[in-house]
Amino acid sequence: MFDGRKIILASQSERRRELITYLFDDFDIIPSEADETPPENVPAEEIPEILAVRKASDVARRFPEALVIGCDTVVILDGVIFGKPADEAEAFMMLKSLSGRTHKVVSGVCFSCTGRTMSFSQTTEVTFYPLSDGDILKYITDFPPLDKAGSYGIQDRGGLFVEKISGDHYNVIGFPVPKINVELKRFEKLLGL
């Protein structure tokens, strides 16, 4: 796919950096400088895609001939977005809220190349077992959650909290690789490459 084109991941997420290797052997990491403030009066489920478009567009302005991939992931409970926690106290409150409940993980993805863009979202439902305060405090101590939407990582010990997943596991990590693979092929055809 996209033979000979520079591939750019517009993210500094370690998890996305690992997962993009499923698709490409050679790529660059150029974090976006776009404003990531969520727009107001927009349904929570639509915000990740809007932010992914901003991220990809920001980097694509500097590298218009490259394939730029932007992504944003949020956790949503009862219509409220749980982003990255500001501190450990907020992380505790987020995990306490998710305990014993089902939440949505929504990733927005955007591709940009030669002035054309394509974007989409992927949603996965995640149900947590009931968590004790001790479980939460131990997790926060052992796996600092400040860089994780919803204050947990399913790829680390946060996976022990999960009773059930409905949808793409990779999406919960923050990069829905199978869907990205399918959509990249569509985008390549759209561009006539």
Structure description:
- By secondary structure, the protein is of the alpha/beta class.
- The chain has one domain: Maf protein.
- Helices cover 33% and strands 25% of the residues.
- The chain has six helices and seven strands.
- It has helices spanning 14-19, 47-62, 88-98, 133-142, 169-173, 177-191; strands spanning 7-9, 28-29, 67-77, 80-82, 102-113, 116-128, 162-166.
- Strands 1, 2, 3, 4, 5, 6 and 7 form a seven-stranded mixed β-sheet that branches.
- β3 and β4 form a beta hairpin.
- α3 (88-98) packs across α4.
- The longest helix has 16 residues, at 47-62.
Low-confidence stretches: none
Query: Which oligomeric form is depicted?
Result: single chain
The level 1 CATH classification is: Alpha Beta
Which sheet architecture does the biggest sheet show? 7 strands, mixed
| Overall body shape | elongated
Number of domains: 1
CATH topology: Maf protein
Report the CATH architecture: Alpha-Beta Complex
Q: Order of SSEs, N→C?
A: EHEHEEHEEHEHH
Q: What is the mean pLDDT?
A: 95
What is the percent of helical residues? Answer: 25-40%
